[in-house]
From TrEMBL:
Residues 40-110 form the SH3 domain. This is MIA SH3 domain containing. GO terms for biological process: extracellular matrix organization. It holds the Pfam family SH3_2. SUPFAM superfamilies: SH3-domain. InterPro entries: MIA, SH3-like_dom_sf, SH3_domain. Keywords: SH3 domain, Signal. PANTHER family: MELANOMA-DERIVED GROWTH REGULATORY PROTEIN. Residues 1-20 form the signal peptide.
Amino acid sequence: MACRLNVSLFLWLLLVICEAGRQMSKLSNKKLCADSECSHPILIARATQDYYPADCRFIPIRQGQLVYVYSMLKDRGNLFWAGSVQGSYYGEQEARIGHFPSSVVEELQPLMPANTEVKTTKWDFYCD
């Protein structure tokens, strides 16, 4: 009986650990970036409206927030960009990179050209 309980507990813990992160479907197979690692922002944009994400691949954006854009999806996902937002004062919201519709922002300041085409990986659409 104790052995069966231990096995059940182990399987339950394993299930919880495995469900902590999950792979979501890819929005696109390619993206445009400023460099091969997409580590430099392409542009700064301002949100023209609030955006409430559908799932964990996306980030919430409030109207007026500045968004640092790091990549622009290509092909079937060309309506989505990836970037990070900060709150109105430092520390209000930790910066997190996620996707959002390009239609909810206006471009303010170009920083670097997005001339580098990069293949997306499963980690581009992974959820914690």
